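INFO worker-7 received task bundle
INFO bundle size: 2
INFO processing item 0
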Amino acid sequence: MTTTVHAFVAAPPPAWRRALLVLAANVAIWLILSAMGTLTSLNDDLRFGVEGSLWLIFISSCKTSMTLACLSFILYLGMSRWPAIVANATTISCGYAVLMLALLPLQLLFVAKAYVFGDSAGWAAIETYGKAIPIVHWTAITAVYFAVAAVKIWQQSQARARDWAQAQADALGLRLELEQQRGLALRAQLEPHFVFNALNAISAMVRTDKDIALEGIHGLSDLLRYALSASERDWVTLADELSFVEDYLILQRMRYGARLRIAIEGAAQAGLDCDCPPLLLQPLVENALRHDLDCHESASDILLAFERHDDQLLIRISNPVHSGAAHNPGVGLGLRNIEGRLRLAYGGAATLRAGVVDGRFEVAIAMPAHAPE
């Protein structure tokens, strides 16, 4: 039965609601600033012996603050709509220049109003009121503009960081999934390969001794039981793997008889509690049988040697190279699968080397003694 899991992700609020939240935040910030400015102004009046009205001062301050709140809101929407405005110092400066030019007609209207309706007429009114911009001082508009630009730059930086983190997480998840699928594919190749070779060994015994063949079938069932359980795990102990290999060699000895000699060295000293990927050793032993005893009629031996150097485990599996023996090309499936599994399990921390050393074909694996965390 397949279970489908649906992930429910909260949808972002609509644009109009986000805009209202920004406007409310702007108004709240400027009201707080107005209250602070009111208290400061009242304190100055009292210090100079002037009795001012807290409410009137606050209302006067709010007129300017609400204008700045609307201005900052408009700037925020504009920079959100056209993020290129805050892309770099040049675009920010150009945006500021455009804003100042856009406010210039309002400045002229304010001066004209002061000239027509001011307490004093003519150039005196222009001189008095022309120093002010139509809503607030130029410095206030400048401060608002660059403050909003700073907020948008910070938001864009946060968005890029989130996008990068999400991209990294997606890439990591995809890589993990691919590696898991590849690991399953490698195991799927190993297990049938092992079963077919074991069945071939039993079929060879059926022709010579049925009782031995029956014993081999029982042994094969134990091997398959371990192979199935181990294939569901990522790690097993070296002791479990060695026990599995020894049972496998008992089955193979029924086929090869006295021609097959086995030597295991240094396993206890290396540490039977070391971790290793399941079904790691058996394909290498099978590979030695396939390219050695299957190619001649003489006796031969397989050596499994283990060494421990600090947190590194060295495994060597070797068999003699017989001159004049037939060549069994095979397909190299065992070594390729083992190398691929080591790369998936340990990355670059494990190596596999294969070649002839002192007249013996040797496969040497160097890997961490314990599973990576």
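INFO item 0 finished
INFO processing item 1
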Amino acid sequence: MPRSKDQQKTKAIFDATLSIILREGFSGLRMSEVARKAGLATGTVYIYFENKTELINQLYLVIKRRSTTRIFDESIVGQPFLVSLEKIWHNYLEYNLLKPEEGAFVEQYYRSPFLRKEVIEETDRLLLPIFDLLERGKKERLVSSAPTELLVSQLIGSINELVKWHLNGRIQLDKTMKDQAFQMAWNSIKR
């Protein structure tokens, strides 16, 4: 019977991987360096992850699962469309402000050769709540009839840019500015 994997070791491997990728990029990621930074033997890392590609893809999925769980919290269930949209929008913004290193990794990952079809499919499933909400908004004649992918891109893209500008000190995102940014995002997709 195979042994179960120690969650603390898995977390140490993921933390080390994220740190190395942010500092060195994907090409600088070496399993031996991950092991050293995680305080583990290189062989242990290979017990947990077959190779660099599997490690990177699993790290991405862990980050996406964690972020979508936080972004699509239960408080939006049964709420009016605009209340739900605003909650999701603010949750996404706050998560990205809180975890900028994860956002940077996700952005790099999407432009990398490590992106796999099955990972894209799982990501699509994780994002279903926002797609479903926007489809509901279309049915309620609140949202533009543009393709839902375009609407999601419009909402997410503006948040990603706000976070970048905030992190590099070009703007200071206080409550007033966040509320203004949401209103602009809403204006960009409403009917």
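INFO item 1 finished
INFO post-check item 1: The chain has ten helices and no strands.
INFO post-check item 1: The chain has two domains: 1-49, 60-189.
INFO worker-7 idle
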